[in-house]
Specification:
- It is a single chain.
- The protein is α/β, with parallel strands linked by helices.
- Helix content is about 35%, strand content about 15%.
- The strands form 2 sheets. Strands 4-5-6-1-7 form a 5-stranded parallel beta sheet, sandwiched between helices. The protein has a two-stranded antiparallel sheet with strand order 2-3.
- A hairpin with a 2-residue loop joins β2 (about 45) and β3 (about 50).
- α4 (about 90-100) runs antiparallel to α5.
């Protein structure tokens, strides 16, 4: 078992999930997303328990696996439209600013398989920030991004760090620059 006796209360703001390769960062995010079943214990967001209300729980949590290929035939526009059902508070106005800030406009009507790794990750990040989910799970968000996009995402995370009710879990090898962290979860190799 990768995690035994793991217990965490995630505060609002940005929490860093730090560890080396193979330490379980992505596995922990998939577990929190409800994509993997916990062998014991309970997952809860805003008094909604995954075991009792799986659909409502998943509406509270944004997760997109940046390595998945299941949506490769879908365009970013269609992907964003599909998120309205999974995340009822999805913010179209915010999405417009994210598309501009991440330079996604030229790619919106292309199937995801035609996009570079960095552009796919930008689509995922735009969806994450626009989802307005109570818990947002970000796995290696800076991988394959250009310098301007990294700066833009750092600004978004700095704003997220101040949010009084939303939690952001960031799986990465190190702290994201000057972004204030609410907590750190250290995973050992």
């Amino acid at each position: 078992m990768l995690f035994t006796q793991l217990s965490a209360r995630i505060p609002p703001g940005v929490t860093l999930v730090r560890g080396g390769d193979g330490s379980g960062k992505t596995t922990l995010l998939r577990l929190l997303a409800g994509e993997l079943a916990a062998h014991a214990g309970e997952l809860q967001v805003n008094n909604i328990r995954l075991r009792e209300q799986p659909v409502a729980y998943r509406q509270q949590v944004f997760w997109a696996d940046p390595h998945a290929s299941a949506l490769d035939q879908v365009t970013p526009v269609d992907y964003f439209l599909s998120l309205h059902q999974r995340h009822p508070r999805f913010d179209e106005a915010l999405l417009g600013g994210l598309i501009k800030g991440l330079f996604l406009a030229p790619h919106l009507d292309k199937p995801l398989y035609m996009l570079s790794t960095g552009s796919k990750r930008k689509v995922w990040l735009a969806a994450a920030f626009a989802s307005v989910a109570a818990v947002t799970l970000l796995d290696q968000p800076f991988a394959a991004l250009d310098k301007a996009s990294i700066g833009f995402v750092m600004e978004l995370l700095a704003d997220a760090a101040k949010h009084p009710a939303r939690a952001w879990l960031l799986a990465h090898y190190e702290a994201p620059g000057d972004v204030p962290l609410a907590a750190t979860i250290e995973l050992r190799d």
